[in-house]
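ok here's the first one, seq then struct tokens
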Amino acid sequence: MAWGAGTLCSARSSRIIGAASVVAWVMLIGLVANLVVIAVGPAPGSLGATDIAWMLMAGVGTWRGCSWSTRRFAVARSAS
């Protein structure tokens, strides 16, 4: 149910405000949510260069995947 609602909302919003804006809002809300968890939770251990590189690659991959799928939602025809 949640996946269906998320897909419906993503498709609708990407048609209204554009795919880039939808991805920017999703990433911003995710960043804020993570910052809250980080602020409340225990301090993380030390991070090495490899850890930071993996986090950056994961962030870029997430951004790219969200951008691609949201653009597809914006141009796809609805079944209605």
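and now the second one, same deal
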Amino acid sequence: MGEDECTQLTVEVMSTEPLTTSEIEGEILDRASVQSSIQRQLGLAADNRRVAPREQRTARVSAMRISAPRTSSEQLEGSASS
């Protein structure tokens, strides 16, 4: 599997959770917007369009999806060194 394919697969996998969670909460997010937001958060090539006001929630959900594992691991590392 090439690097581009691996990157796309990663973005697809990472977008599944926020899409599913939002759907359970009764809100349907646009898959392409979620994936684009995840790409931007990861610093990967993504479209340079401005985020529309209605897509700002998508951007926030995606940002939480990216930061949650980092925050959790930082907390665990901090408590382990105490």
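notes on #2: The chain has a mean pLDDT of 75. Helices lie at 3-24, 31-42, 56-80.
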